[in-house]
């Protein structure tokens, strides 16, 4: 049974590479429909329409660069792996953060507290989880994302959120830009004013962008709520029933735990050296709790 499950997970990995092609395909179709078919002819008309189309083309390219940059950073950045033979610093500290390792000896206790991974046969830092697709433990694992063929964890969560944000903005803009063409679709089809393949392409681009914009909006709202309470998708169930989540440091600090403190880098998939050095959560091995902050 377990072997089948692993085969299924490896299958998901293969599917991931197909997803990259799918992302490239959707971008290609949107690019052609928005830039060449919709804005291109308007640019040549002059006047206000020309100015508006020029602005749309510029914004389209800026968002495209930002979303591709964030995308490749999520795909290629290691979300964080556990160092070999990792052990918590001290038993006392472990008891404090509630993920005991050295303090307990029997296997059951270890597993129930999430301090040891039986698959990796290695210690498990707080907020770390084993991913059955990657077949390894991932630091502050959020989820395994088939769209980016990678796990989303401590070191690439910011890049993932930026990818969500820029893709949402891009697809929303595409939907608005393609809406008039979509409304005219049936009239154009009757009058034969455009080639059937171009009409089909605009139709497809509109439907795809609308579908993505709506589903990304749901994801964005969900992750904004997780970000504001310093919770991962995995921890949502763990958190249920607790009065106040132990990693909830207040909205501003929760945000900085993922995005860093340097405001000029908040909108780019980058971190300053100072932040990487001063914010342990970005490394994924150590996380301040509410009691640390309030103390
Ligand atoms: Zn593991
Ligand atoms: Zn994974």
From TrEMBL:
Give the UniProt entry's GO cellular component terms.
endomembrane system
Q: What class of enzyme is it?
A: transferase
Q: Which UniProt keywords apply?
A: Acyltransferase, Membrane, Transferase, Transmembrane, Transmembrane helix
Localization in the cell: Endomembrane system
Question: Does this UniProt record's set of keywords contain Transmembrane helix?
Answer: yes
InterPro entries attached to this UniProt entry: Palmitoyltrfase_DHHC, PFA4/ZDH16/20/ERF2-like
Task: Write down the chemical reaction(s) this protein catalyses.
Answer: L-cysteinyl-[protein] + hexadecanoyl-CoA = S-hexadecanoyl-L-cysteinyl-[protein] + CoA
Enzyme nomenclature, EC number: 2.3.1.225
Identify the Pfam families for this entry: DHHC
Q: GO molecular-function annotation terms?
A: protein-cysteine S-palmitoyltransferase activity
Q: Which residues cross the membrane?
A: 14-39, 51-72, 159-187, 199-222
Ranges where the Palmitoyltransferase DHHC domain occurs? 115-239
Membrane topology note: Multi-pass membrane protein
Q: Which PANTHER family match?
A: PALMITOYLTRANSFERASE ZDHHC16
- Tell what the record comments on domains: The DHHC domain is required for palmitoyltransferase activity.
Q: Which family does it belong to?
A: Belongs to the DHHC palmitoyltransferase family.
User: This chain belongs to which protein, by name?
Assistant: S-acyltransferase
* Taxonomic path: Eukaryota, Viridiplantae, Streptophyta, Embryophyta, Tracheophyta
């Amino acid at each position: 049974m377990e072997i089948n499950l692993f085969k299924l997970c490896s299958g998901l990995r293969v599917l991931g590479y197909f997803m990259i092609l799918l992302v490239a395909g959707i971008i290609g179709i949107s690019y052609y429909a928005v830039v060449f078919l919709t804005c291109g002819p308007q640019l040549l008309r002059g006047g206000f329409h020309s100015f508006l189309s020029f602005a749309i083309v510029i914004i389209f390219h800026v968002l495209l660069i930002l979303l591709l940059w964030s995308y490749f950073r999520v795909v290629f950045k290691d979300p964080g792996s556990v160092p070999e033979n990792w052990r918590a610093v001290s038993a006392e500290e472990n008891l404090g953060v509630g993920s005991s390792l050295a303090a307990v000896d029997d296997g059951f206790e270890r597993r129930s507290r999430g301090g040891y991974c039986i698959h990796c046969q290695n210690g498990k830092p707080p907020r770390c989880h084993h991913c059955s697709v990657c077949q390894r433990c991932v630091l502050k694992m959020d989820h395994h994302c088939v769209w980016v063929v990678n796990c989303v964890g401590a070191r690439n969560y910011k890049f993932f959120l930026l990818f969500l944000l820029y893709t949402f903005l891009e697809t929303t803009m595409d939907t608005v830009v393609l809406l008039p063409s979509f409304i005219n679709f049936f009239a154009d089809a009757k009058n034969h004013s455009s080639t059937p393949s171009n009409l089909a392409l605009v139709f497809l681009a509109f439907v795809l962008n609308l579908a993505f914009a709506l589903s990304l909006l749901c994801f964005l709202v969900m992750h904004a709520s997780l970000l504001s309470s310093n919770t991962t998708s995995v921890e949502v169930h763990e958190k249920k029933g607790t009065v106040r989540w132990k990693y909830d440091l207040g909205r501003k600090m929760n945000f900085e735990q993922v995005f860093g403190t340097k405001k000029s880098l908040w909108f780019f998939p980058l971190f300053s050296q100072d932040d990487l050095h001063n914010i342990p959560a970005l490394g994924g091995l150590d996380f301040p709790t509410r009691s640390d902050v309030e103390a």
